[in-house]
Amino acid sequence: MDHLSGANSMLPFLPISISTTSNSSLSHFAWPEEAESALKDLKLGPTVSHVDSGAKLFDFICKLRDGLGFSSQPPLALRASNGFSLFFDQYMSRDEAKVWFDKVVPGLGALLLRLPSLLDAHYCKSNKLTSDVNCELRILSSQDAGIVILNQELIAALLSCAFFCLFPTKDRASKHLPIINFDQLFDFLADGWRQLPRQKFKCFVHYFERICNDTPNGVISFERKVLPLHFDADFWLNSDAPLCPIKIFTSHLIEDQPHDALEVIFSNESFGGNSLDISCVYKGCDQEQMRFLINPELVGGMLFMTSMENNEAIEVVGVQRYIRQKWRGSTFFFTGEFLDKKPVDSMGRRKTGLVAMDALNKPIEEQYETNFLLREVNKAFVGFKRSKYESNIFESQDCKQPSGDGKTVCGSISNGKENGDENQNEQGNGNQNGLTVDKAEIFCNSTEKQNKKGNKNGNKKESDNENLNANALVGIATGNWECREFGGNPQIRFMIQWIAASQSNRPFIHYYTDYAISMERAEQAIEWIVNKKWNVGDLWTKVVDYSSRKLEGETTEDLFSWLQPARNDNVVHAGINTFTGSKRDPHPTRQDDRPNRAKRKPVWLNDYVTVMR
C-alpha cells in the first residue's frame, strides 16, 4: 500500500493501521488487538459488553480510545460524558433506549469491525475504476482538484468512528480539516436546556438506526472543483453566453425541489462548517448544518476535505436523505424519517447533486467593489460548472427526456405548490441550447440517432453522448446565498448566480427565497433583461456599474429598480440617460446595433419564456 504514504495520505487520520500477516507479504488494514477485542464484545450486545446506558457507553469509548493508543491525542471535550448520560439516559424514552443499546450499538460494533475490510476493498477497487483519475480516499487539499468515490457502507463505518470519537485529531487543524469527532456535540448537550444539540442527535441516532437495520449499498462521489485563475473581469465583460431561463419560488425549500438540479449548500469555507462544532450553539442552525443533518453522509466528506479557497467549490453526488425536518431561520427540529425515492445512476449514485460554496462573510460596503463581485461570481461559476470527471469516470446513463407539456419558465414568481398541476413537470424544462421542452426532446432523440448512424461500432461514443445529453438537463437550485448570516445583498447575489449558471451552460436556475418583499420586482427586472436580449457580459457590466454607483453614493435604489427605469428606453431628459437612470452614458455594449450582437443569434423572450401570472 505504497499509495498511502504520500503527503495526502489518510493513514495518519484513521483509527486503524496497516498490518502484514506472517504468512503473506500483502498489507491490509487492521484494528489493534485490544480495540478489536472490545469491538467484538460490543457486537455481542449488552449482556457481554455491559454497555446499556449513556454513562457506560462513554466509559466504553474511553476504553476503546486507550486501546488505540490515544494518550498523545487531545482529550475529549470536558462535558462529553455528561452529554452521553443526558441524551441516552434521560432524553430517550426507555423503549427507545432499549432498542438503541440492544440492537443499534451492537450493529455499530459490527460495522466498525468491518471497517478494515471495507477500506481494503475500497483501495483495491479505486485503482481499477480508471487509469486516468485517482478516486481513492485521501486528503483533498486546497488547489488539488480531485474526486473521492466511496460506497455508503464505508461512509457509515466512518461516521460510526466519528460517533465513537475514534479519529485522531492532533494534526487535523494543521491540515485545515474540520472537526470530525462527535465529542463537542455531546459537550454542549450538557447544557440541558438547548434544543439544537438535542435535535441534532435525534437526526444522527435515526441515521444509525436506519443503517443498522438496512445497510445502504450505493455510491457517493466527493469532488473538489478548482477554477483556473484567468477568469478575470475582462472574461465576464466580454462573455456573449446567453442567459438561461430562471424561475423564483417564494414558498419552498431547496432540499424539497423535485427537479433535475444541482442543489446549492450555502457553505462555510470549511466543508460542513459548524455542523459538529460547539460554536453552532451560539449561531443556531444555518442552511449548511441543516443539509448535513438531513443528509448525514455529507459528514463523511468532512474527514478529508480541507477548507476552500476563493476559487474552489465542493460537489457531492449520491447522498441519501434520511431525515424529515422543520427548519426556519436558526431553529431546527427533527420530525421523523424521510424515505428517499430518488433513482440512482449507473454508478449506483442517488440522483441528488449538491454543491457547497462559501460567500464572503459580512462584506458590508466591500461587496460592491469589483474585486469582491469577481470573487463571488467566480465562486458561483466553479460551483456550477459541470464535473470534469463526467466523461472519463462515470458510466453512461439513459438519455433523459423532459416530460410534460409545459414550456421552460423564465422570470416567474410562484407561490403555489411545486408539485401542483402547473409546476409538476418543471424537471428538465430547458437545456444548454436554450430550447423548449418539445425541441429538447427532438434534440436529444436526433443526437442519439445521429450517433447510431455515424458510428456502427461506436457504442462508447454513443453512450458518452447520451450521458452528456442527460447531464445537460441538470439545472441549478439555489437561493439567498449567505444573505442573512453573511450580510450579502440578496439582489446582487441573485444576479451573480444567474450570470454564473448561464456561463456554466446550465439549462435553468431555480431560485428559492422567502424574501418576498425584496424580490417583489424580480419578475419585472427579469422580463426587462430578457426583452433587452442581454447576455452574460451585458448583465455583468450592469451589475458592476450599479455596484460602483452604490459604493459611491450615487444611487439609493435597489438593483432591480435601477435596472428598469420607468421611462421610455433610449430617451434622454435633462441630461439623464433613461436606459441606466443615471447621468453616466450607458455602456457601449448595450447598444442593440453593436457589431458582435448582430452576429449572435438573438434569444427572443417569446421563444423560450412563459411568464406565469
UniProtKB/TrEMBL annotation:
Region (Disordered): 396-435, 447-466, 577-598
A Pfam family this chain is assigned to: PARG_cat_C
Compositional bias of kind Basic and acidic residues: 582-596
InterPro entries assigned: PARG_cat_C, PARG_helical, Poly_GlycHdrlase
Keyword Hydrolase: yes
Alphabetical keyword list: Hydrolase
Gene Ontology MF, one: poly(ADP-ribose) glycohydrolase activity
Low complexity bias spans: 425-434
All residue ranges annotated as the PARG helical domain in the record: 92-224
GO cellular component, one term: cytoplasm
Record-listed E.C. numbers: 3.2.1.143
Domain PARG catalytic Macro: 234-513
Enzyme class: hydrolase
Entry annotated with the keyword Cytoplasm: no
Transmembrane segments: none
Single biological process term from Gene Ontology: regulation of DNA repair
Family, as annotated: Belongs to the poly(ADP-ribose) glycohydrolase family.
Protein name as catalogued: poly(ADP-ribose) glycohydrolase
The organism's taxonomic lineage, starting at the top: Eukaryota, Viridiplantae, Streptophyta, Embryophyta, Tracheophyta
